[in-house]
Amino acid sequence: MREVIVLCEGRTEQEFCRSVVAPSLHPLGISVSGRLAGKPGRKHGGISPWAGYQREIINLGKQRNDWFVGLLVDYYAMPHSWPGRAAAAQKPDGEKGRHVEEAIAEAVRPELGGRFLPCVQLHEFESLLFVSPAVTASSLVVAGETLPVPILERRMAEIVAESGGAVERINDTPTGAPSKRLIRLVPGYDKVLSGVLAAKSIGLGELRSGCPWLDRWLLALESLATP
Known about the structure:
Number of strands: 4
Strand order of the largest sheet: 2-1-3-4
Radius of gyration: 17 Å
Structural class: alpha/beta
Oligomer: single chain
Distance between the termini: 12 Å
Low-confidence stretches: none
Helix content: 40-55%
CATH class of the largest domain: Alpha Beta
Largest sheet: 4 strands, parallel
């Protein structure tokens, strides 16, 4: 098995790796596990300056020379101390994440070589849930929420339409971020439990079709499969 340790910005990303990404890659001989970035025992996510992440990435890579190190973080609210972040602000939305990925990969190349596989999603995890408003609406109601499925589905579809049909373009302002929009629609929404359940219900194939950043990362991970 090829082993990939993914440094995750928050618990939602960590659970997404465990519940959705890992099962799809295991048949290819690739083992994926997520680790929460930051000090052990911390309860909340949120991205910190690059220096801390850089240390963790390099330390993980040094623990075993046959490990691959992954990274799953948001461009949203990423400090400008991250390589490529300041320049990425001038890039089209579809290029921002890739630009930062290439810059941070170059920053750790002296220590990890090609064993670093970063993923920088444009906004946040909840953008995934807008890929299929119908499935997400049904999943959240099954999870115990009370908003009628047709209404939730319609309102989510309207948000996607307002963003030009691309879930990655859903506004990333403090009040317009995908998670904030969901919480206003579904006050009981839980990022880790409800969010990952909805993503799992949508299915990785459809998520990849709607989120280029996810497809790009999974292709990189799949390339580790042994012939």
